[in-house]
Amino acid sequence: MAGENGVWPRCGATITRETDVGGAQDGLELAEALGPLEAGGRIAEIGRRFGDRAIATTSAGAQAPVMLHLIARHAPEIPVVFIDTGFHFPETYVYLERLREAIDVKVEIYAPTLTAARLEAVHGRLWEGDEAALARYSLLTKVEPMDRALRDHRAAAWISGLRRAHSKERARRELVDRQGQTLKLYPILDWTDEDVAGYMLAHDLPAHPLLERGYVSIGDWHSTRPLEDGMTPEETRFNGIRRECGLHIDSQVSDYRI
User: Fold this and answer.
1) Does 258 fall in a domain?
2) Each residue's pLDDT expressed in tens, for the chain with a length of 258 residues
3) Pick from 45, 8, 50: which is nearest to 156 by CA?
4) In a domain, 212, yes or no
5) Which of 81, 67, 55 is nearest to 162 (CA)?
6) Nearest to 51 by CA among 30, 73, 31, 79
7) Count of alpha carbons within 13 Å of 204, Cβ hemisphere only?
8) Which residue range(s) make up the domain with 138?
């Protein structure tokens, strides 16, 4: 892979699945425009089309510096949001502050209406439950604050750092997608783990401290495990019940934008 003053892959594939985006932007045309571009070019094009009507999210996880750096360089007008569930690792909170300083990017914090203590007292340890309990947990701690962020910014598009290499489910995603009422864009969808590592090395971006302890996918402390022998990366989250945290699945709530 190669890129101007850095390292990122070029994707030559054109998205062929049309996505209805409600008329604001034609999904098929946008996918065709973004497909041949490098990641930086994709983000610049999104910024040109949407300006501050696009919103990006960061998980402050293992690959977070890549998207933050790309946005800071190519479309700094795009707001970046961090969803603070109240259950992130202490190392993740410290890491986010380090990234803010290292990359010189502004990150807005959105949190649930319930504090972590109140959530557990009222609803119990939902993260230890079945699929329905996990969905409820995600709705309360991630989907609701994300929906609020989209509304506050009157966002027409949501930029995420999802990659096909993350999981079997994400391997089926396209560059331009739709979740509920919201257009979703994945500028580094086609990047490999090697692409991410190469970009971080080329730009001297700091690594998440939990990587040294065997974590490969970093979410909330109570539902994230280090990778052990015989495990797949997908099995390090939610005891292998699910890989998706719920933020990137249609909420099925009619009043929400996602």
Assistant:
1) no
2) 334 333 333 333 333 333 334 444 467 889 999 999 999 999 999 999 999 999 999 999 999 999 999 999 999 999 999 999 999 999 999 999 999 999 999 999 999 999 999 999 999 999 999 989 999 999 999 999 999 999 999 999 999 999 998 877 778 888 999 998 899 999 999 999 999 999 999 999 999 999 999 999 899 999 999 988 888 877 887 776 665 667 887 778 888 888
3) 50
4) yes
5) 67
6) 79
7) 2
8) 27-240
Alpha helix (H) residue ranges in the chain? 27-34, 39-50, 64-74, 90-103, 116-123, 131-138, 144-152, 193-202
Active site residue 11: no
Burial class (CB in 10 A: 0-12, 13-18, 19+), 151: exposed
Q: Is residue 217 part of a domain?
A: yes
pLDDT score, position 245: 67
Structure tokens at 55: 């919103």
First-to-last alpha carbon distance for the chain, in angstroms, is: 34
Non-local (6+) Cβ contacts of 194 within 8 A are none
Q: Which member of 15, 134, 245, 258 is catalytic?
A: 245
Residue 57, beta-bridge partner list: 81
Task: Give every CB contact of residue 90 below 8 A, 6+ residues apart in sequence.
Answer: none
Q: What is the CATH number of the domain that holds 164?
A: 3.40.50.620
Please check whether residue 107 lies inside any domain of the structure.
yes
Helices (H) and strands (E) in the chain, counts: 8, 6
* Structural domains of the chain, count: 1
pLDDT of residue 244: 61
Half-sphere exposure of 66 (CA within 13 A, CB side): 30
Q: What pLDDT does residue 182 have?
A: 92
